[in-house]
Amino acid sequence: MAHSLDLADPLAHARGRFRLPDGIVYADGNSLGALPAAAPAHLAHVVESEWGQGLIRSWNDAGWIDAPAQLGARIAPLIGAHADEVIVADSVSVNLFKLLAAGLTPRRRTIVTLAGDFPTDSYIAQGLANLLGNVTLREIPLADIVTALDDQTAILLLTHVHYQSGARHDMAALTAPAHAAGALTLWDLSHSAGAIAVDLNAANADLAVGCGYKFLNGGPGAPAWLFVARRHQKRLENPLSGWMGHARPFAFEPGYTPAPGMARWLAGTMPILALAALNAGLATFDGLAPAAIEAKAAALTTHFIDRVAHIPGITLATPRDPAARGAHVALAHDHAQPLTQALIAHRVIPDFRTPNLIRFGFAPLTSRFADVETAAATLAHLIETQAWTNPAYHQSRKVT
Ligand SMILES: *Cc1c(COP(=O)(O)O)cnc(C)c1O
Q: CA 250 to CA 241: how far, in whole Å?
């Protein structure tokens, strides 16, 4: 069954763009994308030739200075943006700070967000509110989000695909009431970009951020990206007004003038080696249509849910409708943490999210239906044998 699904999979060839260890089922592409096969040679070229031989000249000759905009343009088709609406910079956390600060106005000082979204989003909003003193952060349950929007609301901040449940918001359906209230929307696409088809401009979205190291395969700690719709680009300003966001950084003028377009969202000098790895990660998407990627994510996660939902002790924490989820499936279990360690010991790599979730991320470019089958069978076996009782699987680790 899985074998015939893999044979019929129009994205099956994409797996060849990666280097994966033999005998492992990698179900954590939602936390760290796999190594692109082209990355080691590309990094070696950038280090040895561009850095080693080109030295300082490579800022111009190898185009280092334009890398953030060029990589942003490569991300744009994956998220329904124009090439000049996306730039690569900093981390998601820092980009959230920049865009939240920029979106506040003298009269609108409230940020509305969903209670229980990814903590960094809320931590950053809290820090910004503490810094400015007159900003209110409202963390609201889903059912009350729309009624919470009012004439004080500057920004509706939402994670498009929830990091735990994998539940996906209808972007257009939430952007419309935000606009009706006079607010901007800021979407965190960390678990969406590269996993499902996103269309920011079709939804009339205003602002967005996202991760480079998850489904975009940019490598551990890869730079993040941000999106500002064209209609806002002249007005919104970066509070981290560093020289790389200046209109003329090498004029060394005493006063700050923001660059036109997305370059103003840069602050300091870009991490060229990390950008080289992200470049290799984005190249794994060449020629692949976002709709095909989403269809594969839906098929993989549906197959997995069909195999695991009935296992005793398991509760599905992810929506059953593929259009209402991303590319990962979260399963609740009373012994989720030691079970996750047992799975890893049995060569199936998901991750654990407190308090009781095992997350299986099936990156559409690398995952096979056979992997889904192995993951489900291994999970069923470990639950049947009560693997969580083994003390070896009760280690405390910094990263789960
Ligand atoms: C992974 C993730 C982040 C990561 O933020 P960084 O500052 O880049 O580490 C932010 N938001 C969400 C929703 C995430 O899933």
A: 15
Mean pLDDT of the chain: 98
pLDDT tens-digit profile of 163-183?
999 999 999 999 999 999 999
Measured in Å, residue 120 CA sits from the centre of ligand 1 at 7
Residue 237 pLDDT grade (very low, low, confident, very high; cuts 50, 70, 90): very high
Helix, strand or coil for residue 258? strand
Does the structure show a pLDDT above 90 at 397?
no
Cα dihedral 126/132/135/139 (nearest 10): 0
Q: Sort 152 into a burial class: Cβ within 10 Å, 0-12 / 13-18 / 19+.
A: middle
Q: How far is CA 379 from CA 122, 347, 350, 360, 375, in A?
A: 33, 11, 11, 11, 6
Which of 213, 227, 362, 393 is an active site residue? Answer: 213
Dist. CA 322–CA 299, nearest whole Å: 8
In percent, how much of the chain has pLDDT > 70?
100
Query: What architecture does CATH give domain 65-269?
Result: 3-Layer(aba) Sandwich (3.40)
Ligand 1 test: best mutation among 96, 123, 165, 211, most atoms within 8 Å of CB?
211
Q: Where are the domains of the chain?
A: 1-36+288-393, 65-269
pLDDT of residue 376: 98
Q: Rounded to the nearest whole angstrom, what is the distance from the C-alpha of residue 123 to the centroid of ligand 1?
A: 11
Question: What's the whole-model pTM score?
Answer: 0.98
Report the phi/psi class of residue 347: left, alpha or beta, with left for phi > 0 and alpha for psi in -120 to 50: left
The yes-or-no answer on residue 26 being catalytic is no
Class of 1-36+288-393 per CATH?
Answer: alpha beta
The answer, yes or no, to whether the previous bond of 322 is cis (omega within 30 of 0) is no
Of 18, 359, 369, 393, which one is the catalytic site residue? 359
Residues having CB closer than 6 A to ligand 1 are: 91-93, 118, 120-121, 159, 163, 188, 190-191, 211, 224
Distance CA 55, CA 52 (A): 6
Phi and psi of 322, rounded to 5°?
-60, -30
Write out pLDDT tens, residues 300-309.
999 999 999 9
Closest residue to atom 4 of ligand 1, CA basis: 92
